[in-house]
Amino acid sequence: MPNGEDNLFETPFMGVGDFRFDEQVSEVFPDMIRRSVPGYGHVIALSGLIAKRYAKPNTIIYDLGCSLGATTIAIANEVTKPGCRIVAVDNSEAMLTRARATTNDRLVNPRAIEWLREDITDMSFEACSVVVLNFTLQFIGIEKREDLLINIKNSLVPGGLLILAEKVLHDDTKSQQSLTNLHHDFKRANGYSELEIAAKRQAIENVLVPETPSAHVARLTRAGFSEITEFFHCINFKAWLAVK
Ligand code: GEK
Fold first, then answer.
1. What is the domain range of residue 119?
2. pLDDT at site 18
3. 188 within a domain of the structure (yes/no)
């Protein structure tokens, strides 16, 4: 693993117990997510462009569930509005340690980024114009998801925006099976073995809980977002922008 390549699930033992965002995962995370999430790079780059359009001076931009800060850095490299603070939040110390240590090498121009260790279901947000939940809501208990979105919506300034990217389920069982097959083909094409795919699937089953796109859109509407627009879809992954 010293080269940052994800081979955590090459031995079946890694499939025992639930998946955790620990030191081992943080070390291989960029490789893992690129090989597992189709279109990941597009979502990250687009998040930077969307943030640039919606960020307002003297507000905060939050990246929630920032991991190593791929989205955080994309935003920091795009947004130049005066007085905009970038706050990246994760509850994994391993992720944040690695994110902090590599920040300066990834920034086009040096600027301050605040890395915060918090549980996003249990924090209060300051006035913000952009909030990002890229592949993070899927790890939050379903019963806590609506309160989190309401909390975010209440903290956004008028015209502020949430970016939400998620793994999704299809309403139709046959279509869901076809998309799962295609997702596994995507992983095989990226060098994962049958054993690794099966072990990862088992480990992540109770931790990552996907929902249908209609469930997400209905919840965003109930939380009070007015314009909800899908801007990305690839196999079983989607992303929306939701304006307050
Ligand atoms: C990216 N957005 O590269 N509070 C804070 N963080 C949490 C919580 C919580 N309650 N639950 C999970 N996390 C990133 C990728 S990864 C997606 C996001 C993935 C954090 C968790 O520690 C992990 O770093 C992140 O959410 C999810 O664009 O691994 O598929």
1. 40-169+208-243
2. 72
3. no
What's the chain's average pLDDT?
Answer: 93
For ligand 1, whether the C-beta of 67 sits within 6 Å is yes
Q: Is 125 domain-assigned?
A: yes
**CB of 134 closer than 6 angstroms to any ligand 1 atom:** yes
Task: Report the separation in Å between the CA atom of 136 and the middle of ligand 1, taken as the mean of its atom positions.
Answer: 5
Q: Is residue 196 part of a domain?
A: no
For residue range 118-149, what is the model confidence (pLDDT) as tens digits? 999 999 999 999 999 999 999 999 999 999 99
Average pLDDT over residues 188-217: 91
**CATH for 57:** 3.40.50.150
Contacts of 106-111 spanning 24+ positions with Cβ under 8 A:
106/69, 106/73, 107/73, 107/76, 107/77, 108/77, 109/77, 111/76, 111/86
* Whole-number Å distance between alpha carbons of 91 and 122: 11
What percentage of the chain carries pLDDT values higher than 90?
A: 83
Give 77 Cα–ligand 1 centroid separation in angstroms. Answer: 21
Number of domains observed in the structure of the chain: 1
pLDDT tens-place string over residues 227-241: 999 999 999 999 999
22 lines ligand 1 (CB under 6 A): no
| pTM, full prediction | 0.95
**Do the domain assignments include residue 185?**
no
User: Residue 4, class by beta-carbon neighbours within 10 Å (0-12 exposed, 13-18 middle, 19+ buried)?
Assistant: exposed
Q: How far is the centre of ligand 1, averaged over its atoms, from the C-alpha of 119 (Å)?
A: 10
